[in-house]
Design a protein that fits this description.
elongated, about 475 residues
């Protein structure tokens, strides 16, 4: 007896978790939220008395809280039939976690009616109902996206899996970029020219907000909070900006997300110096888990994002997809619901493969990106002809500060031209393989890009003339 007492004491001191054996022990663990430890005992009791409402409720909640929502539904449905207290609340949550959003909405509404009859507060349930309704709207608008690959990596090093073209900028972890080991930020996006960064940083209220900084000569200016409502979420993190300089993707975990981090997109309104109301990018990109670091490499026509859905602690899955020119969604009304849910959950990326040639081309591009070796250092930064007697190879060659500043604008225009021209070529390739309906959808975007490319050519020529004119005034 003494030995048994000593062993139990040691278990307690060492923090060894002993599963509950009696109903009282299981209920005590359940009330403390220690569902993993309470679950084995409740499983035993519900097996012995399968029609006991409370046993079904307690075991169902333990399954739900430990990541087994599918298993939980059977037991929680029995609990509701047996009128176990709060059964509807947890059953609705289990439906929501398994993408059965219509069932979740109906169950929440029934639960709210019951609460109202008993004159109890419905505030919490109504908030959960609204979230399920929002999730249902997203399920009705699942985007048709072709995912070409996915791979699991360590969460702490997940940015190393992103292989972006230089034209798409660079990604860093905050601590590495700023030489700070205090964990005061999230990620940093540096533009392709290296003259601006967007980053997330911890604020005094212990939430992450997104800021930007501009580079003036060789020094960074002070950080400026992004204007508008981007930072009104609990946390805003993982920023990425497209080559147009106005479209920003980021992740936030506020009330507009399904749960955890969701990916959002917004655009900068130059006239009002603010960002438009952010839009949740929806499914299949977002889920009840954490989804973030959405990146579009326009040069390689590849998209990337990270998610911890279905992953063990410390791991994250990186998904690679083909970006759409315009958003097209599956038909919720005519499509098999189980198939739609699988597509929304990214059950298998092969389910998204509808065009073998597109997949093959994209996987080839991805393979080239993954195997690309760092380029050898070029002998010259560039080659720019001023006149017959002067050819410049580096920024330090310029004698006129005004010409040097104008040359930077010239380089920005050239980079923008290269990106838009590459995008146009990719669009034309896709157009040549598309059916008539798809061609009709793509034609306006191609025409717009062609006009923009022509415009950029004219702007580049004007900028080059201005650079030469300013520099010649100094070297005469």
């Amino acid at each position: 007896m003494k030995k048994q007492y000593i062993l139990l004491l040691l278990f307690g001191l060492l923090g060894i978790h002993v599963s509950a054996q009696t109903l009282a022990q299981a209920k005590a663990l359940y009330e403390k939220g220690r569902y993993e430890q309470a679950k084995p005992a409740f499983k035993k009791f519900v097996k012995s008395q399968p029609n006991n409402g409370n046993y079904n409720l307690w075991y169902g909640v333990c399954c739900l809280k430990t990541g087994e929502a599918e298993t939980a539904i059977k037991y929680l449905e029995t609990a509701v039939k047996r009128r176990a207290t709060s059964g509807q609340l947890y059953l609705a949550q289990a439906y929501d976690a398994t993408y059965r959003f219509e069932d979740a909405v109906n169950t929440y509404e029934e639960y709210i009616t019951e609460l109202a009859k008993r004159k109890r507060s419905t505030t919490k349930a109504e908030k959960l109902l609204e979230k399920s309704k929002a999730n249902l709207r997203m399920l009705k608008g699942v985007e048709q996206v072709c995912f070409i690959d996915s791979f699991v990596v360590d969460k702490k090093d997940f940015l190393e899996a992103y292989k972006l073209s230089p034209e798409s900028g660079k990604l860093f972890m905050y601590d590495a970029y700023f030489g700070n080991t205090g964990g005061k930020g999230g990620t940093v996006y540096e533009t392709e020219l290296g003259n601006k960064i967007y980053y997330s940083e911890l604020q005094k209220d212990s939430t992450l907000n997104i800021l930007s900084r501009n580079k003036m000569l060789d020094e960074w200016g002070k950080g400026n909070m992004l204007p508008g409502i981007i930072n009104e979420s609990m946390n805003a993190n993982y920023p990425y900006v497209l080559a147009d300089g106005i479209t920003i993707y980021y992740a936030a975990d506020g009330p507009a997300s399904m749960d955890g981090y969701d990916i959002f997109v917004t655009r900068y309104n130059m006239n009002a110096d603010t960002y438009l109301t952010p839009e949740n990018v929806g499914m299949p990109f977002n889920s009840p888990y954490n989804d973030y670091m959405y990146v579009i490499d326009e040069f390689n026509n590849l998209g990337w994002f990270a998610s911890d859905r279905y992953q063990p602690e410390g791991k994250v899955c990186i998904y690679v997809f083909i970006p759409n020119v315009s958003k097209q969604v599956y038909s919720y009304e005519s499509m098999d619901k189980d198939k739609l849910i699988k597509l929304a959950r990214l059950h298998s990326i092969k389910d998204t493969w509808t065009d073998a040639s597109l997949v093959a081309d994209a996987r080839r591009r991805l393979q080239e990106v993954m195997q690309e070796k760092p380029e050898a250092k070029k002998r010259h930064e560039f080659e720019f002809v001023i006149d017959d007697g002067h050819i410049y190879y580096k920024a330090a060659d310029f004698r006129s500060p005004q010409a040097k500043a104008q040359f930077k604008k010239y380089l920005q225009l050239k980079d923008s031209y290269n990106q838009q021209q590459s995008k146009l070529e990719n669009l034309r390739t896709r157009y040549s393989r598309a059916n008539q309906s798809e061609k009709n959808d793509m034609a306006p975007a191609i025409l717009d890009l062609e006009k923009r490319v022509e415009q950029l050519v004219a702007e580049i020529n004007r900028a080059a003339i201005q650079v030469r004119k300013l520099e010649k005034q100094t070297i005469k």
